[in-house]
Amino acid sequence: MLRTLFGELAPRRMPLPHDPDETAHVELDPHGNTLAPAHARPTLAQQGAIDVVVDASPAAAMREHFGATRANLDHASAMITLLDPSQLWASQVIHALSDAASQHVERLSLRERGTLRTLAVIERTLVLRRGAAPLKVYHADIRATGLEQEEIANALAEGSHMTAVIIGAMQPHAVVALLRSLLAATRQPEWRCPWLVFILPPGAAALRQRILDQDWPPHVRTAAMSESLTGASSVWNTVLTAWEAASAATRGTEPQLAASPGVAGAPPPDGIPALRPDGVARALSLVARTEGLLACGLVNLACGDLLAADARDGSGHSLAAHAAAMCAARQAHLCAGGADTPAPDELLITAGPHQVLLRAVAKAGSLGLVALLERSQANLALLRFRLLEAEKHLI
What we know:
The chain has eleven helices and 13 strands. It has helices spanning about 1-5, 45, 60-70, 90-100, 145-155, 170-185, 205-210, 230-250, 280-290, 315-335, 380-395, and strands at about 50-55, 80-85, 105-110, 120-130, 130-140, 160-165, 195-200, 220-225, 295-300, 305-310, 345-350, 355-360, 365-375.
């Protein structure tokens, strides 16, 4: 049963009218045996949940199987794991995706042999995408406690292409424990997942900074996105946005730009840290491909001077003016609040058909990234994700 749920079988096809190949469509089990056509078999929803009794550690069994089927993620099917310690959204997302795509939810209950207690209920559904490979989306409702709970969650996450960690109504000590567990897991030799994306509630700037400041291994790329999660659809849209951005970054499809004059190789202005050669061009090229973006640039937050920019359709002059105005508003906010007022990590304004977003660079408080967008086409979630990635190329 573990092989069925965690296996690399081709996705089941929904029967289509006038499909001459449907009657010939068969599937193979992991041992190569022919199964009945998919439409002729009852779905898992009709059969009920599958119970699997494990003798040893369920995490060890999962690791053993994933080690055989997902040792090389370049050749494994696309997989996203949803980690939801608060148990607020992940199950809803799985079932909403199942209903929207008419794909059943595969459900597996792991039980301990001695007591038959449920250790975890693992759910998976398949997301079919037009023009792209299907996505397997997993979620584990873990009933075990302590170290066993962490091991089951990590065993599921470590074989994924991306793990989305949904931080909901968690107490600060629980968040600290979660970060420690993930940090330890990513340093284990079994960990292969290249992307950790944290979805935070709005106004969690301090938590976002704490996550990004952790000593993550070089092979694990992290991002933290603050979003207002109002339902399963908004959670999934945020996860899918992160997946698309992560996939583009992994493929290296961002266009290259020449370094802006006066940035690479030139002495930095007073108070500005030294910038990595070609880092500014790389960072701006990553942001510039965001849908709806007219211009983006690197700005001196103290005076509003634009240090480098990538603009199209003659939007460079407008970007410079908006950057100066946003920095002035930021300075006014700091002056009005007094010495103890924390600096905002992001400002967003709407100006007619345009939106302007200013975000401070986390590791260089004197620098900021500014973006000018077409409001009707703006994708703020994707933009924020790419700004976080762009920061890593600057310093």
